[in-house]
Amino acid sequence: MGAREVQKKLDFSSPTLATYHLDKLEDLGLIHKGSGGYVLVKEVKVGALSQIIRFGSLLLPRYIFYAFFFSAMFVFYLAVKWAEGSFTVNFDSGFAILLGVSVMVVMVYECLRIVRQRLI
Question: Do 72 and 93 lie in a common domain?
């Protein structure tokens, strides 16, 4: 594909703007300029990028915050019940433990699934 074709497909204002962006993609190693135009070298999974949050210089899965929050709430629940001396396994505490563990497992699984995806 040439710069003019890219300009028309993406509705850019000029071929120069299309060339600028194509040069940036070439610098990243995502496309290659050949005799017939530009050729795709690497495909980027843009949808996976929506699952990532930049936290300072770190790139973290967005579910990591939910995982920390629910883990902290679960540990707090267990600590309070243990400190009160009223920790007995009955229907209510069993349900709370089951709910806490299942939410933590789901959140950790989602974080690992995001980390395993290759973004570029």
Answer: yes
